[in-house]
Predict the structure of Dehydrogenase/reductase 7.
Amino acid sequence: MSWELLLWLLALCALLALVVQLLRFLRADGDLTLLWAEWQGRRPEWELTDMVVWVTGASSGIGEELVYQLSKLGVSLVLSARRVQELERVKRRCLENGNLKDKDILVLPLDLTDRSSHEAATKMVLQEFGKIDILVNNAGRSQRSLFVETSLDVFKELIELNYLGTLSLTMCVLPHMIERKQGKIVTVNSLLGIISAPLSSGYCASKHALRGFFNCLRTELATYPGIVVSNICPGPVQSNIVKNALSEEVTKSVGIDVAQSHKMATSRCVRLMLISMANDLKEVWIADHPFLLIAYLWQYMPTWAWWLTNILGKKRIENFKKGLVRPIYTILNTYQSCRKYEIFEHLKTFLTPHQLYDINTKDIRSIVFPRHICWFTINYYWS
Ligand SMILES: NC(=O)c1ccc[n+]([C@@H]2O[C@H](COP(=O)([O-])OP(=O)(O)OC[C@H]3O[C@@H](n4cnc5c(N)ncnc54)[C@H](O)[C@@H]3O)[C@@H](O)[C@H]2O)c1
Protein backbone atom coordinates (compact mmCIF):
# COMPACT_ATOMS: atom_id res chain seq x y z
CA MET A 1 0.00 0.00 0.00
CA SER A 2 1.44 3.41 -0.97
CA TRP A 3 2.03 6.13 1.61
CA GLU A 4 -0.40 8.39 -0.18
CA LEU A 5 -3.21 5.86 0.09
CA LEU A 6 -2.34 5.23 3.71
CA LEU A 7 -2.56 8.95 4.45
CA TRP A 8 -5.94 9.15 2.72
CA LEU A 9 -7.13 6.18 4.74
CA LEU A 10 -5.95 7.77 7.97
CA ALA A 11 -7.60 11.05 7.04
CA LEU A 12 -10.85 9.21 6.28
CA CYS A 13 -10.68 7.33 9.57
CA ALA A 14 -10.05 10.58 11.42
CA LEU A 15 -12.98 12.23 9.62
CA LEU A 16 -15.27 9.29 10.41
CA ALA A 17 -14.10 9.32 14.01
CA LEU A 18 -14.93 13.02 14.19
CA VAL A 19 -18.40 12.50 12.74
CA VAL A 20 -18.97 9.54 15.07
CA GLN A 21 -17.85 11.65 18.01
CA LEU A 22 -20.21 14.45 17.01
CA LEU A 23 -23.15 12.12 16.46
CA ARG A 24 -22.48 10.30 19.73
CA PHE A 25 -22.33 13.66 21.41
CA LEU A 26 -25.75 14.38 19.93
CA ARG A 27 -26.81 10.88 21.07
CA ALA A 28 -28.19 10.01 17.67
CA ASP A 29 -29.12 6.35 17.82
CA GLY A 30 -32.00 6.35 15.40
CA ASP A 31 -32.90 7.80 12.02
CA LEU A 32 -33.95 11.43 11.98
CA THR A 33 -37.72 10.78 11.72
CA LEU A 34 -37.55 8.52 14.73
CA LEU A 35 -35.52 10.98 16.78
CA TRP A 36 -37.96 13.74 15.88
CA ALA A 37 -40.84 11.49 16.99
CA GLU A 38 -39.03 10.83 20.26
CA TRP A 39 -38.61 14.55 20.84
CA GLN A 40 -41.92 15.94 19.61
CA GLY A 41 -44.16 12.99 18.82
CA ARG A 42 -46.83 10.98 20.61
CA ARG A 43 -45.84 9.08 23.77
CA PRO A 44 -46.29 5.28 23.90
CA GLU A 45 -47.83 5.81 27.36
CA TRP A 46 -50.72 7.73 25.76
CA GLU A 47 -51.12 5.84 22.51
CA LEU A 48 -50.62 2.16 23.21
CA THR A 49 -52.88 1.58 26.18
CA ASP A 50 -55.88 -0.80 26.02
CA MET A 51 -54.49 -2.60 23.02
CA VAL A 52 -54.06 -6.29 22.33
CA VAL A 53 -50.47 -6.91 21.26
CA TRP A 54 -49.21 -10.24 19.94
CA VAL A 55 -45.43 -10.61 20.13
CA THR A 56 -43.58 -13.52 18.52
CA GLY A 57 -40.14 -14.45 19.84
CA ALA A 58 -41.20 -13.21 23.28
CA SER A 59 -39.01 -15.65 25.19
CA SER A 60 -35.69 -13.87 24.69
CA GLY A 61 -33.82 -10.71 23.68
CA ILE A 62 -35.74 -7.91 22.00
CA GLY A 63 -39.12 -9.67 22.18
CA GLU A 64 -38.74 -10.38 25.89
CA GLU A 65 -37.81 -6.78 26.71
CA LEU A 66 -40.63 -5.54 24.50
CA VAL A 67 -43.27 -7.42 26.48
CA TYR A 68 -41.80 -6.13 29.77
CA GLN A 69 -42.08 -2.54 28.57
CA LEU A 70 -45.54 -3.15 27.07
CA SER A 71 -46.76 -4.71 30.32
CA LYS A 72 -46.20 -1.35 32.01
CA LEU A 73 -48.46 0.39 29.48
CA GLY A 74 -51.58 -1.61 30.38
CA VAL A 75 -51.95 -3.57 27.14
CA SER A 76 -53.17 -7.16 26.83
CA LEU A 77 -50.36 -9.42 25.72
CA VAL A 78 -50.03 -12.60 23.71
CA LEU A 79 -46.60 -14.16 24.21
CA SER A 80 -45.43 -16.55 21.51
CA ALA A 81 -42.27 -18.58 20.95
CA ARG A 82 -41.52 -22.31 20.97
CA ARG A 83 -40.53 -22.91 24.61
CA VAL A 84 -43.54 -22.77 26.91
CA GLN A 85 -41.49 -22.73 30.16
CA GLU A 86 -39.57 -19.69 28.97
CA LEU A 87 -42.81 -17.95 28.05
CA GLU A 88 -44.24 -18.75 31.50
CA ARG A 89 -41.11 -17.25 33.07
CA VAL A 90 -41.55 -14.08 30.99
CA LYS A 91 -45.24 -13.96 31.91
CA ARG A 92 -44.40 -14.17 35.62
CA ARG A 93 -41.98 -11.26 35.30
CA CYS A 94 -44.56 -9.22 33.39
CA LEU A 95 -47.02 -9.79 36.24
CA GLU A 96 -44.42 -8.91 38.89
CA ASN A 97 -43.18 -5.73 37.23
CA GLY A 98 -46.11 -4.51 35.16
CA ASN A 99 -49.71 -3.40 35.71
CA LEU A 100 -51.31 -6.52 34.27
CA LYS A 101 -53.43 -9.31 35.74
CA ASP A 102 -53.16 -12.99 34.89
CA LYS A 103 -56.09 -12.79 32.46
CA ASP A 104 -54.34 -10.03 30.47
CA ILE A 105 -51.52 -12.30 29.31
CA LEU A 106 -51.95 -15.30 27.06
CA VAL A 107 -49.05 -17.69 26.67
CA LEU A 108 -49.38 -19.15 23.20
CA PRO A 109 -46.56 -21.52 22.16
CA LEU A 110 -45.92 -21.22 18.44
CA ASP A 111 -43.30 -22.48 16.04
CA LEU A 112 -43.12 -19.94 13.25
CA THR A 113 -41.88 -22.58 10.82
CA ASP A 114 -44.96 -24.75 11.47
CA ARG A 115 -47.19 -22.75 9.17
CA SER A 116 -50.15 -25.10 9.48
CA SER A 117 -50.56 -24.03 13.12
CA HIS A 118 -50.85 -20.28 12.46
CA GLU A 119 -54.56 -20.17 11.61
CA ALA A 120 -55.55 -21.99 14.81
CA ALA A 121 -53.24 -19.78 16.89
CA THR A 122 -54.84 -16.64 15.44
CA LYS A 123 -58.32 -18.00 16.23
CA MET A 124 -57.22 -18.68 19.79
CA VAL A 125 -56.06 -15.07 20.27
CA LEU A 126 -59.32 -13.74 18.84
CA GLN A 127 -61.32 -16.08 21.06
CA GLU A 128 -59.41 -14.89 24.13
CA PHE A 129 -59.31 -11.13 23.51
CA GLY A 130 -61.74 -10.50 20.62
CA LYS A 131 -59.25 -8.42 18.62
CA ILE A 132 -55.61 -8.01 17.64
CA ASP A 133 -54.45 -4.40 17.54
CA ILE A 134 -50.75 -4.98 17.01
CA LEU A 135 -48.89 -7.97 15.63
CA VAL A 136 -45.17 -7.76 16.33
CA ASN A 137 -43.33 -10.12 13.97
CA ASN A 138 -40.16 -10.39 16.03
CA ALA A 139 -39.09 -14.07 16.08
CA GLY A 140 -36.07 -14.81 13.95
CA ARG A 141 -32.60 -16.30 13.75
CA SER A 142 -29.34 -15.08 12.36
CA GLN A 143 -26.38 -16.81 10.70
CA ARG A 144 -22.62 -16.93 11.06
CA SER A 145 -21.04 -18.90 8.22
CA LEU A 146 -19.46 -18.45 4.82
CA PHE A 147 -21.72 -19.17 1.87
CA VAL A 148 -19.24 -21.66 0.37
CA GLU A 149 -19.19 -23.71 3.58
CA THR A 150 -22.91 -23.62 4.29
CA SER A 151 -25.49 -26.28 3.55
CA LEU A 152 -28.52 -25.29 1.49
CA ASP A 153 -30.70 -26.40 4.43
CA VAL A 154 -29.48 -23.39 6.42
CA PHE A 155 -30.71 -21.02 3.72
CA LYS A 156 -34.02 -22.91 3.56
CA GLU A 157 -34.42 -22.67 7.34
CA LEU A 158 -33.72 -18.93 7.38
CA ILE A 159 -36.23 -18.31 4.62
CA GLU A 160 -38.77 -20.63 6.29
CA LEU A 161 -38.45 -18.86 9.63
CA ASN A 162 -37.54 -15.22 8.98
CA TYR A 163 -39.47 -14.80 5.75
CA LEU A 164 -42.22 -17.39 5.11
CA GLY A 165 -43.12 -17.90 8.79
CA THR A 166 -43.56 -14.15 9.23
CA LEU A 167 -45.61 -13.86 6.04
CA SER A 168 -47.81 -16.77 7.01
CA LEU A 169 -48.71 -15.33 10.42
CA THR A 170 -49.35 -11.92 8.86
CA MET A 171 -51.61 -13.60 6.31
CA CYS A 172 -53.71 -15.07 9.15
CA VAL A 173 -53.98 -11.82 11.13
CA LEU A 174 -54.45 -9.33 8.28
CA PRO A 175 -58.07 -10.26 7.30
CA HIS A 176 -59.12 -9.46 10.87
CA MET A 177 -57.39 -6.05 10.67
CA ILE A 178 -58.95 -5.38 7.26
CA GLU A 179 -62.37 -6.18 8.70
CA ARG A 180 -61.80 -3.64 11.50
CA LYS A 181 -60.02 -1.25 9.12
CA GLN A 182 -57.33 -0.81 11.71
CA GLY A 183 -54.26 -2.43 13.19
CA LYS A 184 -50.49 -2.33 13.18
CA ILE A 185 -48.18 -4.91 11.69
CA VAL A 186 -44.75 -4.28 13.14
CA THR A 187 -41.89 -6.38 11.83
CA VAL A 188 -38.50 -6.51 13.45
CA ASN A 189 -36.27 -6.50 10.42
CA SER A 190 -32.60 -5.47 10.66
CA LEU A 191 -30.07 -3.02 9.27
CA LEU A 192 -28.97 -6.18 7.43
CA GLY A 193 -32.28 -5.94 5.58
CA ILE A 194 -30.90 -2.74 4.06
CA ILE A 195 -27.15 -3.22 3.98
CA SER A 196 -25.11 -6.45 3.85
CA ALA A 197 -22.27 -8.02 5.77
CA PRO A 198 -20.22 -11.17 5.18
CA LEU A 199 -21.02 -14.41 7.05
CA SER A 200 -24.74 -13.64 7.00
CA SER A 201 -25.72 -14.19 3.37
CA GLY A 202 -28.82 -16.27 4.21
CA TYR A 203 -29.87 -13.92 7.00
CA CYS A 204 -29.37 -10.82 4.83
CA ALA A 205 -31.35 -12.45 2.02
CA SER A 206 -34.27 -13.32 4.32
CA LYS A 207 -34.35 -9.83 5.83
CA HIS A 208 -34.03 -8.08 2.44
CA ALA A 209 -36.94 -10.24 1.22
CA LEU A 210 -38.98 -9.36 4.29
CA ARG A 211 -38.42 -5.64 3.79
CA GLY A 212 -39.36 -5.87 0.10
CA PHE A 213 -42.49 -7.80 0.96
CA PHE A 214 -43.75 -5.44 3.68
CA ASN A 215 -42.94 -2.33 1.63
CA CYS A 216 -45.08 -3.79 -1.15
CA LEU A 217 -47.86 -4.85 1.23
CA ARG A 218 -47.99 -1.30 2.58
CA THR A 219 -48.72 0.02 -0.90
CA GLU A 220 -51.44 -2.61 -1.39
CA LEU A 221 -53.06 -1.50 1.86
CA ALA A 222 -53.08 2.19 0.92
CA THR A 223 -56.89 2.10 0.86
CA TYR A 224 -56.83 1.20 4.57
CA PRO A 225 -55.06 4.15 6.18
CA GLY A 226 -55.88 2.73 9.61
CA ILE A 227 -53.62 -0.26 8.99
CA VAL A 228 -49.98 0.60 9.56
CA VAL A 229 -47.16 -1.58 8.26
CA SER A 230 -43.94 -0.82 10.04
CA ASN A 231 -40.37 -2.08 9.48
CA ILE A 232 -38.05 -1.83 12.45
CA CYS A 233 -34.40 -2.07 11.42
CA PRO A 234 -32.06 -2.40 14.40
CA GLY A 235 -28.30 -2.61 14.25
CA PRO A 236 -26.46 -4.72 16.86
CA VAL A 237 -28.56 -5.03 20.03
CA GLN A 238 -27.85 -7.04 23.19
CA SER A 239 -29.69 -10.38 22.93
CA ASN A 240 -29.08 -14.07 22.24
CA ILE A 241 -29.08 -13.56 18.48
CA VAL A 242 -25.43 -14.54 17.92
CA LYS A 243 -25.59 -17.47 20.35
CA ASN A 244 -28.67 -18.81 18.53
CA ALA A 245 -27.35 -18.03 15.05
CA LEU A 246 -27.16 -20.90 12.57
CA SER A 247 -23.73 -21.87 11.30
CA GLU A 248 -22.71 -24.24 8.48
CA GLU A 249 -25.30 -26.94 9.23
CA VAL A 250 -28.94 -26.47 10.11
CA THR A 251 -28.44 -28.58 13.25
CA LYS A 252 -25.54 -26.44 14.43
CA SER A 253 -25.79 -23.03 16.05
CA VAL A 254 -22.96 -20.75 17.17
CA GLY A 255 -23.82 -21.75 20.74
CA ILE A 256 -21.42 -19.48 22.64
CA ASP A 257 -22.17 -16.33 24.57
CA VAL A 258 -20.36 -13.38 23.08
CA ALA A 259 -19.50 -10.19 24.93
CA GLN A 260 -22.09 -7.58 24.10
CA SER A 261 -21.16 -4.43 25.93
CA HIS A 262 -20.50 -2.58 22.67
CA LYS A 263 -24.04 -3.31 21.40
CA MET A 264 -27.07 -1.14 22.00
CA ALA A 265 -28.93 -1.86 25.24
CA THR A 266 -32.07 -3.91 24.56
CA SER A 267 -34.15 -1.52 26.67
CA ARG A 268 -33.14 1.48 24.51
CA CYS A 269 -33.90 -0.37 21.28
CA VAL A 270 -37.32 -1.37 22.60
CA ARG A 271 -38.11 2.15 23.81
CA LEU A 272 -37.43 3.44 20.30
CA MET A 273 -39.61 0.65 18.88
CA LEU A 274 -42.48 1.76 21.11
CA ILE A 275 -42.03 5.36 19.96
CA SER A 276 -42.15 4.15 16.38
CA MET A 277 -45.39 2.22 17.09
CA ALA A 278 -46.99 5.16 18.88
CA ASN A 279 -46.20 7.45 15.94
CA ASP A 280 -47.06 5.01 13.14
CA LEU A 281 -43.63 5.30 11.55
CA LYS A 282 -43.25 3.21 8.41
CA GLU A 283 -39.57 2.36 8.71
CA VAL A 284 -37.11 3.11 11.46
CA TRP A 285 -33.38 2.56 11.80
CA ILE A 286 -32.23 1.95 15.36
CA ALA A 287 -28.48 1.70 15.94
CA ASP A 288 -25.56 3.32 17.63
CA HIS A 289 -22.76 4.77 15.57
CA PRO A 290 -20.84 3.78 13.56
CA PHE A 291 -23.53 1.31 12.40
CA LEU A 292 -26.10 4.01 11.81
CA LEU A 293 -23.56 6.11 9.97
CA ILE A 294 -22.72 3.17 7.75
CA ALA A 295 -26.41 2.68 6.95
CA TYR A 296 -26.56 6.33 5.87
CA LEU A 297 -23.42 5.80 3.81
CA TRP A 298 -25.10 2.86 2.05
CA GLN A 299 -28.12 5.02 1.38
CA TYR A 300 -26.30 8.04 -0.02
CA MET A 301 -22.89 6.81 -1.20
CA PRO A 302 -23.25 3.11 -2.05
CA THR A 303 -19.93 2.89 -3.87
CA TRP A 304 -18.02 4.22 -0.87
CA ALA A 305 -20.08 1.97 1.36
CA TRP A 306 -19.08 -1.07 -0.71
CA TRP A 307 -15.44 -0.07 -0.51
CA LEU A 308 -15.59 0.26 3.27
CA THR A 309 -17.66 -2.91 3.72
CA ASN A 310 -15.16 -4.90 1.66
CA ILE A 311 -12.23 -3.73 3.78
CA LEU A 312 -13.98 -4.40 7.08
CA GLY A 313 -15.60 -7.58 5.77
CA LYS A 314 -12.26 -9.08 4.75
CA LYS A 315 -10.95 -8.69 8.28
CA ARG A 316 -14.18 -10.06 9.70
CA ILE A 317 -13.84 -13.19 7.56
CA GLU A 318 -10.15 -13.59 8.48
CA ASN A 319 -11.00 -13.45 12.16
CA PHE A 320 -13.94 -15.80 11.73
CA LYS A 321 -11.60 -18.33 10.12
CA LYS A 322 -9.09 -17.93 12.93
CA GLY A 323 -11.85 -18.36 15.49
CA LEU A 324 -11.10 -14.94 16.96
CA VAL A 325 -14.72 -14.13 17.69
CA ARG A 326 -14.49 -13.97 21.44
CA PRO A 327 -10.99 -12.56 21.88
CA ILE A 328 -11.68 -9.61 19.61
CA TYR A 329 -14.79 -8.76 21.55
CA THR A 330 -12.92 -9.18 24.74
CA ILE A 331 -10.22 -6.79 23.58
CA LEU A 332 -12.90 -4.17 23.19
CA ASN A 333 -14.11 -4.71 26.75
CA THR A 334 -10.56 -4.79 27.94
CA TYR A 335 -9.83 -1.55 26.16
CA GLN A 336 -12.74 0.10 27.85
CA SER A 337 -11.62 -0.93 31.31
CA CYS A 338 -7.81 -1.03 31.18
CA ARG A 339 -4.99 1.31 30.36
CA LYS A 340 -2.84 0.21 27.42
CA TYR A 341 0.11 -1.24 29.38
CA GLU A 342 -2.32 -3.37 31.35
CA ILE A 343 -3.92 -4.92 28.30
CA PHE A 344 -1.53 -7.79 27.74
CA GLU A 345 -1.56 -8.73 31.41
CA HIS A 346 -5.34 -8.79 31.31
CA LEU A 347 -5.48 -10.76 28.06
CA LYS A 348 -3.19 -13.42 29.54
CA THR A 349 -5.83 -14.30 32.07
CA PHE A 350 -8.29 -15.64 29.54
CA LEU A 351 -6.48 -16.28 26.23
CA THR A 352 -4.37 -19.30 25.39
CA PRO A 353 -0.77 -18.58 24.29
CA HIS A 354 -1.83 -19.52 20.77
CA GLN A 355 -4.64 -17.00 20.76
CA LEU A 356 -2.34 -14.35 22.19
CA TYR A 357 0.11 -15.03 19.39
CA ASP A 358 -2.73 -14.76 16.86
CA ILE A 359 -3.60 -11.28 18.00
CA ASN A 360 -0.78 -9.75 16.06
CA THR A 361 0.89 -6.43 16.70
CA LYS A 362 -1.36 -4.68 14.22
CA ASP A 363 -4.44 -5.53 16.26
CA ILE A 364 -2.80 -4.47 19.47
CA ARG A 365 -1.60 -1.23 17.94
CA SER A 366 -5.15 -0.36 16.97
CA ILE A 367 -5.98 -0.44 20.66
CA VAL A 368 -3.79 2.56 21.33
CA PHE A 369 -5.43 4.65 18.61
CA PRO A 370 -7.79 7.38 19.73
CA ARG A 371 -10.84 5.77 21.26
CA HIS A 372 -13.34 6.06 18.44
CA ILE A 373 -11.06 4.94 15.67
CA CYS A 374 -10.30 1.92 17.77
CA TRP A 375 -13.95 1.36 18.56
CA PHE A 376 -14.82 1.70 14.92
CA THR A 377 -12.15 -0.78 13.85
CA ILE A 378 -12.75 -3.41 16.49
CA ASN A 379 -16.51 -3.37 16.35
CA TYR A 380 -16.38 -4.41 12.77
CA TYR A 381 -14.31 -7.50 13.33
CA TRP A 382 -17.42 -9.29 14.37
CA SER A 383 -20.91 -8.22 15.31
N1 LIG B 1 -30.06 -8.51 18.39
C1 LIG B 1 -29.65 -7.94 17.27
O1 LIG B 1 -28.51 -7.50 17.16
C2 LIG B 1 -30.64 -7.79 16.13
C3 LIG B 1 -30.32 -6.87 15.14
C4 LIG B 1 -31.20 -6.72 14.09
C5 LIG B 1 -32.36 -7.45 14.04
N2 LIG B 1 -32.63 -8.36 15.02
C6 LIG B 1 -33.88 -9.13 14.90
O2 LIG B 1 -34.58 -9.07 16.13
C7 LIG B 1 -35.43 -10.20 16.23
C8 LIG B 1 -35.32 -10.76 17.64
O3 LIG B 1 -34.02 -11.30 17.81
P1 LIG B 1 -33.19 -11.16 19.16
O4 LIG B 1 -32.03 -10.32 18.86
O5 LIG B 1 -34.07 -10.81 20.28
O6 LIG B 1 -32.64 -12.66 19.28
P2 LIG B 1 -32.95 -13.81 20.34
O7 LIG B 1 -32.28 -15.03 19.82
O8 LIG B 1 -32.60 -13.35 21.71
O9 LIG B 1 -34.54 -13.99 20.26
C9 LIG B 1 -35.15 -14.62 19.15
C10 LIG B 1 -36.54 -15.06 19.53
O10 LIG B 1 -37.12 -15.73 18.40
C11 LIG B 1 -37.63 -16.99 18.83
N3 LIG B 1 -37.63 -17.98 17.76
C12 LIG B 1 -36.56 -18.51 17.11
N4 LIG B 1 -36.97 -19.46 16.25
C13 LIG B 1 -38.33 -19.54 16.37
C14 LIG B 1 -39.34 -20.33 15.76
N5 LIG B 1 -39.04 -21.28 14.86
N6 LIG B 1 -40.61 -20.13 16.11
C15 LIG B 1 -40.94 -19.20 17.03
N7 LIG B 1 -40.04 -18.44 17.65
C16 LIG B 1 -38.75 -18.60 17.33
C17 LIG B 1 -36.71 -17.39 19.96
O11 LIG B 1 -37.32 -18.38 20.78
C18 LIG B 1 -36.55 -16.07 20.69
O12 LIG B 1 -37.65 -15.84 21.52
C19 LIG B 1 -35.00 -11.16 15.13
O13 LIG B 1 -35.94 -11.09 14.09
C20 LIG B 1 -33.68 -10.61 14.66
O14 LIG B 1 -33.43 -10.89 13.32
C21 LIG B 1 -31.80 -8.54 16.07
Residues 56-57, 59-63, 81-82, 110-113, 138-142, 161, 188, 190, 234, 236-237, 239-241, 244 surround nicotinamide-adenine-dinucleotide (CB under 6 Å). DSSP finds 16 helices and seven strands in the chain.
